[in-house]
Write the structure tokens for this entry.
Amino acid sequence: MGVEMNRPAALSLTASGAFVVGCNYWASHAGTAMWADWRPEVVEADLKQLAAEGLQVLRVFPLWPDFQPLTPLYGGHGHSVELRCGERPLPPDGMSHEALARFAAFADLAHKYGLKLIVGLLTGWMSGRLFAPPALQGRNLLTDPLAIQWEVRFVRHFVRRFREHPAILAWDLGNECNCMAPVPSSEAAWVWTATIANAVRAEDAGRPVVSGMHSLDEPDRNGPWRIADQGELTDLLTTHPYPHFTPHCDQEPINTTRNGLHATAQSRWYADVGGKPCLAEEVGTLGPMFASESVAAAYARMALFSLWAHDCHGLLWWCAYDQDRLEHAPYDWNPIERELGLIRADRSPKPVIQELGKFARWLNALPLSALPPRLTEAVCILTQGQEQWGVAFASFILAKQAGFDLTFQYADQPLREAGLYLLPSVRGDSGFSRRFWHALDARVRAGATLYLSHDTAMLSPFEEPFGLEIQTRERRTGPAEFTVDDVSYTAPSPVKLRLEPTRAQVLGRERDGNPVLARAAHGQGETCFLSVPIERVVSETPGSIYPDAQPLWQIYRHVAQPFLGGRVVGKDLPQVGVTEHPLDERRRVVVLINYSPAPVEVAVTVTEGWMPGEAWYGERPRAGYCALGANDAAVFTVEK
């Protein structure tokens, strides 16, 4: 039975189920120098080629010093006299009318070829080089009052000038603006973001404001930049999920499970804790030192299906054209920036752009305008003291291997309704507040299930919810060795808790008989306690999620098994992910994705009373099996 729905007339970035395919664009002949070395005939050839390959959206960058060339002039003894635009008198907004005219011509060309534009307004950071107007160089571009004054003038003038242009899809704050300068606090980052976002909205309230940021909530120099703050202040969150630059990712080949799920897990983390849709705004393999062209194409195919199936709002590749023939910085400095294009310098397309175009055309031909949200069974709660991204990513992987889906939240956010709560690898003396623990305890007493894996956390109360009494606590001198469901595991663990069950059922024990996994009734619900931080182990151990590695995911399957009854389709291979998307009470879309570089025959179970319907991509299950190509997918309906 077919599904008949009306397709919207225009692309959207924020509507539920919306998905766009495109790339980040600098002109093929010039890279970051495209506005100073303006060649409209080359730019037109670029846009014509990208559109012909099937791309829909370009993220583009009006380089800040080209568009607002604020130049300081000095008098005797180096005293500042005035600012000019080069040698010309300074207009109130400081903008270059020549550069603006070039952008207008560019936008007209994009519209001519049916391409939509996400405009990165304050492009002061690009590919490892800082670009700023001469008058602002040496200042902190995120906190200095003079810099912010001119930034607001830039944004308001640019948006006012182009807000009526039909090619503009959204306004991006700028390219990874959190890399332009350090900020002293999350409050300073909030103030800068609010200032620029409000400047955009003052001139154009109709288009979404896109974050454009890089590595939010990371425990490094970007720590003050918070996902929740960006979600509060912008309309669309963004990830730039390069495995090489993201902790816990660059451990196995790009076309295997960990890196195949990276963009999806990070984008879902941002969307869930930020409360706004999320776009994978920069995706790529970072060139031939990481992956061949054929592997890059396979990775792109896998990432496209995965992002689409998990309500992430698109994929924009970095970038359109190779920049290996350019001599200016940053290409002169950074070899990693030179061969990242979809198209080579001689204009020959790489296999990866063919995958993007194929997916965009397939998506456009589907009998539905947007994929309904996937079913989720659990809420994964991230706590203080742990490396939240690593734990979140590992939990997402283990759930995917086990055949269920989860959403994320922080422990200091209002507790979401769920049947299953995961508190993974809880660490430190103050992981969460008493009021959070009592709210969670009330949900469990009312019928929910809580799984908690212990790293070094202090928990109070402990015996009452978990039915276990701690006899002693000690530092381990070696890894924990334990057995659950007749499967043996070895995993690093910093602390050994010697446990005595008071009313818990022991499900797994260490070699010396010490309980390691236990289940206890708690009110109308139950708790599961694991004394080993398997999520941190997965996040830090290369090869730990290979199909032939110890199956830590089976512990997740054991915990979640009572909640899988709402699923219609099950699978047996950990490297295959499955999502289900209800169309109505009698029909669902099922997406199976092979997150591995080898073709597989996956055993598929379908609940009695349901049967496979139409195949939308690849093969539907036959005789209890579904064939999936390497890094490929199957999309089909099931009907009751």
